[in-house]
Amino acid sequence: MDAVVFPGQGSQKPAMGAAWVASPSWAVVDEVSATLGRDVGALLLEADAATLQATSNAQVAAFALGLVLLDAARNAGLTWQVAAGHSLGEYTALVAADILPVADATTLVGERAAAMQVAADASPGTMAAVLALDTEAVEACCAAAGGHAWIANDNAPGQIVVAGTADGVAAAAAAAKERGGKVLPLAVGAAFHTPLMATAQPRLDQAVAAAPFAPGAVDVVANVDATPHGQPGEWPALLSAQLCSPVRWRESVLRLEAMGVTRIIELGPGGVLGGMVKRIAPDLDRTSASTPDELAALI
Q1: Where are the domains of the chain?
Q2: At 267, which helix (H) or strand (E)?
Q3: Which of 146, 174, 182, 200 is 20 to 30 Å from 102 by CA-CA measure?
Q4: Which one from 11, 33, 56, 87 is the annotated catalytic residue?
């Protein structure tokens, strides 16, 4: 049983679309550009690292490349029985499950990216990865920050991301180091999946309410509860909650394994999710693709 998974914001890098320009699946980029009214191809081919770091650009670029890979995988005959995505990647997973059409998912991502950029500008924050501590220990470290830091991503055993205000994350990081943890600051200017994103909620909720969710061809394991969902009526609340709730990726992978998944197929740059899967469920087969050659080898 195969699961397809998609990375989120942070996976983007300059010129990551260059290998796909000659592919028929590049037409998806034109569709995303037309839907959003902006040149998404330029983001995938010409944008530098600083440009891609901006939330409004990073999310659109990562999503667009995910769609290109998804289209190419489908055209090559690749199939899967369940899907999942990390944060932004969940929107690509909804397309992979036929729960959302490409155009409507693109509109949602555009609104989400713009709303989160405004929230990030209004409430600046930061994030840091805490290594070598378990979830309970990191929760205690966040508590030591006095309500200004939270767990944003439970990625894998010994790899948890905290987010919050700069002072809050610094306090949580200091507490983590006292407990023997290692802290790696992340190059972001916002505290994703925390209450600091709350000002983006009304705009996202309005967009989600207008989206035409359909019964899924396969289920998607959701970030917020690590549970498979396929019914259209479930997804508006799940996507709304995801904005300010932690990504439960470790639990999601364990759920995929419990469902009978034996292979995780990652479509997107970097292979970061595959590395997490190796730490979470080492018995699962893992494979990834970000270029046409890698996809051909996977097939």
Answers
A1: 2-122+195-298, 126-186
A2: strand 263-267
A3: 200
A4: 87
Residue 214 in contact with residue 197, Cβ under 8 Å? no
Inter-helix orientation angle 102-122/55-75, to 10°: 160
Please indicate whether residue 87 is annotated as part of the active site: yes
Considering the entire predicted model, what is its pTM? 0.94
Tokens of 169: 């994350």
- Set 148, 193, 245, 290: catalytic member: 193
Per-residue pLDDT of the chain (299 residues; tens, 9 = 90+): 999 999 988 888 899 999 999 999 999 999 999 999 999 999 999 999 889 888 889 999 999 999 999 999 999 999 999 999 999 999 999 999 999 999 999 999 999 999 999 999 999 999 999 999 999 999 999 999 998 999 999 999 999 999 999 999 999 999 999 999 999 998 777 899 999 999 999 999 999 999 999 999 999 999 999 999 999 999 999 999 999 999 999 999 999 999 999 999 999 987 889 999 999 999 999 999 999 999 999 88
Please indicate whether residue 240 is annotated as part of the active site: no
CATH (one of 3.40.50.300, 3.30.70.250, 2.20.25.90, 2.30.110.20) for 126-186:
3.30.70.250
With 0-12 / 13-18 / 19 or more C-beta atoms within 10 angstroms meaning exposed / middle / buried, residue 209 is exposed
Strand pairing class (182-186; 159-164): unpaired
